[in-house]
Amino acid sequence: MRVKQRTETRRERLVVESSSGNVFADLGFPDPELELFKATLMLQIYRIIKERRLTQGEAGKILGIKQPNVSRLVRGSSGSYSVDRLIEFLTALGQDVQVVIKQTRRKH
Predict the structure, then answer these.
(1) Which DSSP symbol is given to 21?
(2) How many CB atoms lie within 10 A of CB 68?
(3) Quick one: CA torsion of 59, 60, 61, 62, rounded to 10 degrees?
(4) Interior CA angle at 48 toward 75 and 100, to 5°?
(5) How far apart (Å, rounded) are the C-alpha atoms in residues 54 and 49?
(6) What is the end-to-end Cα distance of the chain in Å, rounded?
(7) Rounded to the nearest 10 degrees, how much is the dihedral formed by the CA atoms of 59, 63, 69, 75?
């Protein structure tokens, strides 16, 4: 005797919210603009290391930090690194860092 297994499908209502343009603000971080800026700097550091095909050890020597810290950095963990320190890393990698200030689209 065959028993048919009944499968039920549930329809779940999916709620979609528009992003503010800053994932850190959307997730409720206390200082989302700072976090976004740091993430942008870290992404550039990651790209340079990959583009130059540096090992984490080689990158650490250039940046003046240990390999485990390079690993954390390229995985996106800013840890205790300030914006100033991230800019120093970019400078050590031969980059000229410029900060551009422009009016926001949001009205305050």
Answers:
(1) S
(2) 10
(3) 50
(4) 95
(5) 5
(6) 72
(7) -60
Contact criterion met (CB below 8 Å) for 44 and 90: yes
| Per-residue tokens: 3 | 């028993």
d(CA 46, CA 30): 25
Q: Which two tokens stand for residue 54?
A: 């540096």
At residue 27, the 3 state secondary structure works out as coil
Rounded Cα–Cα distance for residues 26 and 77 (Å): 18
The pLDDT tens digits of the residues spanning 1-49 come to 566 665 556 677 888 878 888 888 888 889 899 989 999 999 999 999 9
Residue that has been written with the tokens 């979609």 in this structure: 16
